[in-house]
Amino acid sequence: MSAATRETPPSPGRIGAVILGVDHISLRFGGVKAISDVSFEVREHEVLAIIGPNGAGKSSMLNVVNGVYHPQQGRIRFKGREFPAMTPHRAASMGIARTFQNLALFKGMTVLDNIMTGRNLRMTTGILAQALRVGPAEREEIRHREVVEHIVDFLEIQAHRKTPVRRLPYGLQKRVDLGRALASEPDVLLLDEPMAGMNVEEKQDMCRFVLDVNEQYGTTIVLIEHDMSVVMDISDRVVVLDYGKKIGDGSPDDVRHNQAVIDAYLGAAR
Amino acid sequence: MTSALDTFPRLLLRNAAERGDHPAVREKDLGIWQTWTWRQVADEVRALACGLAAQGFRRGMHLAIIGDNRPRLYFAMAAAQALGGVPVPMYQDAPAGEFSYVLNDAEIAYAVVEDQEQVDKLLDAKAKVSTLAYIYFDDPRGLRNYEGLVSISKLQALGREYDAAHSGFFDAEIAAGRPDDVCVMLYTSGTTGKPKGVCHTHQAFIVAGGGAAEFDGLTASDSMLSYLPMAWVGDHLFSYVQSMITGFTINCPESGDTVLTDMREIGPTYYFAPPRIFENLLTQVTIRMEDASAVKRWLYATCMRVAKRCGAEILEGKRVSFADRVRYALGDLLVYGPLRNMLGMSRIRVAYTAGAAIGPDLFRFYRSIGINLKQLYGLTETCAYGCLQPNGAVHLESVGPPAPGVELKIADSGEVLLRGAMLLKEYYKRPDATAESIDPDGWFHTGDAGLIDARGHVKIIDRARDVGKLATGAIFAPNYIENKLKFFPHIREAVAFGAGRDYVCAFVNIDMGSVGNWAERRGIPYAGYGDLAAKPEVYELVRGCIEQANADLATEPGLAHSQVRRFLILHKELDPDDDELTRTRKVRRGFIADKYASLVDALYAGKTVQHVDTAVKFEDGRSGIVSADLRIEDAKVLPTQTARAA
């Protein structure tokens, strides 16, 4: 049985109401249009994949959602509130976490420390109190460490707790990046090509972790992925972008048979 | 009423009463070692047993236990025993086919497993196993959407209710247990034919575990790392049985990948591993030393030379010159101590290895850095209890004298026979196999061929069915000779012939890496394996190895006639693709003898050159013919000695 296939079909009641929506988003860099008038919605507890050829605007879309880019037009709805644009801090404190295509880890720090940085937003004691290890700071650290340990256990990286991230193979670094994102206990997790550059076995592992996160923590997942078999296996819904426009939105099967999507991927004359 | 300590549940109650606050089991969870004291273990087992009883598990039933070494799985073992049931630990990585065979053979209705992986396998097997009805799991991860499964904690909660409603039930069940009840069923790995369930009684394992514990002076303050498969007799004896008997602590590592780190943190005093693991550890040390700075490399090399010269002797308390003692003490401070610490072996009092022949360099390495590594001999059928090497009398080639309570004799065929309380009761549902291996006088036929040396130590030389006789009537143990040759780094494979012949001859495969390197350093050019193997210098090198092995054999009683008289180096590497080796790289002697019959004849006909055409399969699937003229050379044979001057 492939690790990438669901052992049980998603229970019908799993997917909830809309948690995140982007409405008519357009994003330009100078004269270059990265995204034009894209809208879609993400429902609670679902796994949504954003696919598209290179330069389709997928990563830009994630960056709009978590506030790195500010779109010129459109609005973002999250947990019942509306914003013309997110900021990274607001996104993070409202429960959006993300991983990065090119990994954003502190390479010289250990796995534990890297994941611990994901807890930063949830720490209440000050930097001075932490440096001096006064009582409340120490108690707080123990509490956070427990959360981190659950993640270490979840991602099966117990053997590498104290290893500097630089010394880990790429697939494991990706896993640590996922762990760091999970540490903030997000409601929505944005994954930017979580399987890029991995071998088949690493991909299967990662698929399993993504599905387990979704199942166990109920985390809503938005992921960008190029590997079609992965996308078709693990997502509930797929949004297809091409040249900054949305050309498809539906279940994996719908999208697979969508003529516009086929053309975009096979490069048919437009 | 339960005062006699003759079953494991009674031993558990004794431990809970006498050393209730002593740590019994530790498990690293969420980065922290969690401890169960004996009192807590007894409590957990009680809840688990009552839970099983509430679900209908009864005396005489079998409980499958599948997973890595987890405390709750050990508790489940004790719980089954408390109810008079029989735990059947199974290899967690066995393929699905073997799984359903064992489940069916043991008529498993109840199974306690570790996690989703095992649950999935059981659910797959369920189609073929009609009896399987109840599955309990330890780790709930990924199992949320599964139906009809119960977690161990839930089972224990049911058990506590049941216990409250049926007070006295648990104690009465334990009181009803008898020492000659079957306490565990261990399946043999089944390399030959279908796996067989080996039924052991409480009494057998208590004799074996108690005998071995007393032999090495184990006490409750000892500590053991439990990381080998629970289905293996070695883990059952060393972890479960001996901790129950002595009250020592067993430690379950966090996962298979963390064993090394966990071992360093725990610092066990008692350790058991097959040779393969000792070899991997040494390889890691060697690789890391090669990457170290020049000063450290020099220091390591220098100290290891000292250790090699006198380390093992110091460990055995033999006479060593004062100067060497000072050097060794210095080496201990600088290298051996830190190295033991790195390996997590600082506190080890006794370490055992068994299961396969261990190389002399490997064995000596660990002993020379002060680790009391010893060998033992035992089988699944004898509770892994047969021979033990005593402290101070450890010899590489033997496995020690028979352990206390074990009778041992060598049959006329050379087969090792064992008798004692530690023998299996029977093979499950296989009276034919039981009758075949235990004779009417109670001797168990091990299937191993062995000798007893002048010191009274037992030497295991081969599987009995492979052992033959030379035309002179002397014993011929091909595997023993081949192993001796293969321990030389230059020799990769060897095939010995001699059954029914006047003397022993051998085919040799050189080790391409090692000999290639050797040739490069000497400026000997070569084009490939066949070319290198035919070089006169290489023949000279191999002859040196063989003559050294011959010198060894000459001193061993009964084996002096097995010295290798003539040999040749094969022109191609023996290969599983050509059916010359099994997939696990054991030589298929009979097949090779047929395939290269002309070479074997030439060896015994006294020829010095023989032409041979060999069909080979290339890696791309094509086949072809490789031809060569192979030289055959003689090796020096020493006259038979009874024993080397001691």
Task: Give a written overview of the molecule.
The complex is a heterodimer of chains A (270) and B (646). Chain A has helices spanning 58-65, 88-94, 111-117, 127-132, 135-154, 170-183, 200-216, 228-234, 252-256, 259-266, and strands at residues 18-29, 32-43, 47-51, 73-78, 81-83, 96-99, 188-192, 220-224, 237-242, 245-250. By secondary structure, chain A is α/β, with parallel strands linked by helices. Chain A folds into two domains: 1-7 and 14-95 and 187-270, P-loop containing nucleotide triphosphate hydrolases (Rossmann fold); 108-185, no CATH class. Chain B is α/β, with parallel strands linked by helices and 646 residues long. Among the domains of chain B are: 8-200, 3-Layer(aba) Sandwich (Rossmann fold), CATH 3.40.50.12780; 466-634, 2-Layer Sandwich (GMP Synthetase, Chain A, domain 3), CATH 3.30.300. Chain B is built from 21 helices and 28 strands. The longest helix of chain B has 22 residues, at 294-315. Chain B is globular and about 85 Å long. The A-B interface holds A 1, 7-8, 11, 145-146, 149-150, 152-154, 156, 158-159, 161, 212, 215-216 and B 28-32, 120, 141-142, 144-146, 254-255, 257-258, 261.
